[in-house]
Design goal:
Elements lengths: L3 E6 L2 H9 L8 E4 L11 E4 L1 H4 L9 H7 L4 E3 L3 H16 L4 E6 L2 E5 L6 H19 L3 E6 L2 H8 L7 E3 L5 H5 L12 H9 L5 H6 L2 H8 L1 H10 L15 E12 L2 H22 L1 E12 L4 E12 L2 H13 L8 E9 L2 E2 L12
Parallel strand pairs: 2-4, 7-8
Antiparallel strand pairs: 1-6, 1-7, 2-3, 5-6, 9-12, 10-11, 10-12, 10-13
Helix pairs in contact: 1-4, 4-5, 10-11, 12-13
The structure holds thymidine-5'-triphosphate and magnesium ion.
Magnesium ion (MG) binds next to strand 1.
Length: 356
Amino acid sequence: MRIILHLDLDAFFAACEVREKPELKGKPVVIGADPKGGRGRGVVSTCNYSAREYGIHSGMPISQAHRLCPHAAFLPVNFRLYWQVSERVMMIARKYSEKFQQSSIDEAFLDVSSCSSFEQAEQLAQRLKQEISDNEGITSSIGIGENKLVAKIASDYRKPDGLTAVRPEQTKEFLFPLPVRKLYGVGRKTEQLLQTLDISTVGDLAAYDVQSLTSLFGKWGLQLHLFSNGIDESAVEEVEGIQSIGREVTFEEDTNDLMLLNETIDAIAGDIAETLQEERIRFRTVTLKVRFENFETHTRQLTLGRDAADKETLQAAAQELLLKFADSKKKVRLIGVRISNLSFGGKQKSLNEYGT
Ligand code: TTP
Ligand code: MG
């Protein structure tokens, strides 16, 4: 039997800010675009739990967040700070298991099968939470389960500062009442398709005929069947550091001014390059994201023949990718640059893309 633990830091970007500015403690804090007194056009990256009480959440237009809670502290994204805190937290977590996998800036899986029981794993989780909170002043939530799927869903079950252990014999009763959206890989599109089949909970999905699922979804149908039954054989595999770094900008007004687009790309690239240099990170793949006025969103990417870390290479690559959109007549609402295929501290590591 395996015992897997999933760690997810609470309201991470906001927690880092509150830690740096204790006067914000207990107040609603929103991280993201400048609200400009309600006229801002970007989105909320995240917010702390006091702000969530007003209905604010990640991805919400910042103008709406401002309407819901005008007296919140609105702060810009300070990626460098979050990156540093993340690194320190991951260093702590890494000590708790030889099999460790960081899966995003604020999440990691630990294979703690060497614990003799779930009770022991819970004690270990409690110690880990305590050490993170003592050393870094931020809270976290942990889920424990027989595999990565269950552990991840469990970490989200009670938040913030939660600890949820789902023993193998409880897996199905835990999963079945949850909305299908909670399963890995089930996004809005799959959710909508499943809805047309009258499937809304994980239990509905588990009860659905697997053959019908595969004829509708192909291999993914089988995967859905397995996940809904709580089956996930994937291993906790070491993947060092985060897998990609990106920034995006929403324009004040939709635009097709090529000069403005180029300048914006240069500014984003310059910003990312600064983090790279300080942290000694190199990249090989550059992705450009463009969202048009009608919200249609496209990405184009290119992979360099060698690692790079300099601003100029990043800017040139992003500019080249922008040319691929040159024929479009539509105005641009948002533009973003992301780098992936990263190497750290001079050592090449193979990394998978992990988009947020
Ligand atoms: P999450 O772990 O999804 O969110 P969170 O840590 O803020 O809150 P919680 O886990 O307590 O529910 O994401 C981690 C960080 O990633 C988050 O602090 C900010 C960033 N992020 C974005 O920038 N945009 C997004 O849409 C999301 C979901 C997260
Ligand atoms: Mg989190």
